[in-house]
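Predicting holo structure, magnesium ion bound.
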Amino acid sequence: MSNTFQISPGVQQRMGRVQPLLIDGEWREAQGGATTDVYGPSCGSVISKAASASDADTELAVAAARRSFDSGVWTGMTPAARAKILWKVADLLEAYSAEIAELEMLDAGKFYSSAKEGEVPFAAECFRYYAGWCTKIEGTTKQISTVPGQDFHVYTQREAVGVAALIVPWNGPLVQAAWKIAPALAAGCSCILKPAAETPLSTVRLGEILIEAGVPAGVFNLLLGDGPGVGQALAAHPDVDKISFTGSTQVGKRIVNAAQGNLKKVSLELGGKSPIVIFDDANIEEAIVGAAQAIFSNAGQVCVAGSRLYVQASVYEQVVTGIADIAKQMRVGASTDPEHNMGPLISEKHLNAVSKMIDQGVAEGGVIVTGGGRLELGGGYFVEPTVFSDVNHSMSIVKDEVFGPVLVAMPFTESDDIVALANDSEYGLAASVWTQDIGKAHKTAAAIRAGLLWINCHGIPDMAVPFGGYKQSGWGRENGYEALLQYTELKSVVAKL
Ligand code: NAP
Ligand code: MG
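Done. Tokens:
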């Protein structure tokens, strides 16, 4: 079977050069010339090289963002003018969607069709959504009660928080970047983006689009490099006013520590171990398909993946067998071949980590219903879609985030407190509840301590719907008006008349 994708000449050429940094409107190499290799997860070989920013580059990028913010070149622009530029970004993303989808396929292991029809339009929609908010950032008026007999005019206003550093992971490089850049720019911030070292390609293209759309020099800067170097320096930098981070809970805690120096504002979208609760009165066929998609999409490398499955005992066998059958039929392989429907893990390091967690699950007594093995396919990083049974809440495979296509299934009965089981996690990102009893659905949704609850579906995102977690799944929300507010400060003005 060789249905392998023909890479376009433009993308070939793009991958043949060193992926550059964008500082103050100029594309450049790292000072000192350091580079890192960029691997393709489907082939396991080097597909490009990326500049690796030095401390001096980080200083320049922060200084450029600071200058552009203080100059008012962006915040001083009318909201309608900013909106037009963000809308243009969306148009350009769509115009270049074929090329961007290719980059996302080669670098991040996405399937071309899902990148072209899913990720790229979704990123475009994000810029349009926040283009709309530019002209609607408002304050309120207030009444003073403490000083009788005097007249006051009192109002609040929202102002851009300043220089925002945006750090994103590799599992959705384009969309995760859009989710931060669009609200930051809409609010009037100047920003510095650091993508994951594994996936710089689509963000470089996005940087070009931002410049082409008219974002002024210094308002958007791109630093490539690793987290412990560039990311840590941004999180600690005294001239950065805000840090928005998406990634692991472990690194999120490091960000919080690093941000202490100047008490910069912090928002965090972190990990999850999200429960799926299937009651016996659910539409079982739909629930089986929904649960399988919730864990196997993007090979489980999704923060809201439904990775803990609780099924009412009377339908447990039917549901677990149904999900296992779907897993067995999945065609795992290179995302460059449209015959496949589950692609690679992002890196050899991540493949090793996922394999180790599966082994640990077996060692602790979990039983593999299907999957569990690595697949040697053309050098890429592949693991079988995996379902565990006979697990309990003391096992690491039930407690820890795997970030791979690994599901743990547990039955529950009327005598179990299903809400307590669902809530027995240090995470609280997402959950889904499957039942045709509308009262049970909403009561269970209300009782689960998580930021995103789905009823009879899982993983549906939308720009209008706030996205983020309770507990150790993070601080703050992405998407919606709520995300925009996190790039603003609130000022109260009290005027005695
Ligand atoms: P990660 O190690 O936390 O990395 C995420 C980003 O942080 C990368 O750009 C990374 O850079 C950078 N980084 C690493 N160490 C850093 C440090 N000390 N200071 C500043 N930045 C640092 O996460 P990952 O393992 O790559 O990604 C998977 C995790 O992300 C999962 O836990 C998943 O749940 C979470 N995630 C959450 C959401 C959400 O919205 N809630 C969405 C997607 C993913 P380098 O990789 O270049 O070193
Ligand atoms: Mg890559």
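The pocket of magnesium ion (ligand 2) is lined by residues 38-41, 107, 198-199 (CB under 6 Å).
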